[in-house]
Write a structure and sequence with these properties.
Shape: elongated
Strand content: over 45%
Structural class: mainly beta
Number of helices: 0
Distance between the termini: 40 Å
Amino acid sequence: QVQLVESGGGLVQAGGSLRLSCAASGSIKSINAMGWYRQAPGKQRELVATITNSGSTNYADSVKGRFTISRDNAKNTVYLQMNSLKAEDTAVYYCNLKHLGPFRDGMDYWGKGTLVTVSI
């Protein structure tokens, strides 16, 4: 099993910044992708950004140029630096981990989420 614990959410004014962190523990395989998804009230959960253990990144168009995903493989931790926040970024942000390649197990591991609220 894999456990994911997010931190860093909160209330911020539009134009401000926040940094989310997600620490993974448990049976983590070396080839994996970690990432962030978000779910706003009344909407489906959507991809924000992902990063593989080798550093390949993928971003939603809506956050490109404003958000940066990074990770510390030694700490099994992924970060999301969010700048120039907009009201539409308000959502619960969930950390995700998938095992890849020879370790692919078909599982999506999720954290419990952290709330980000951007006020106008």
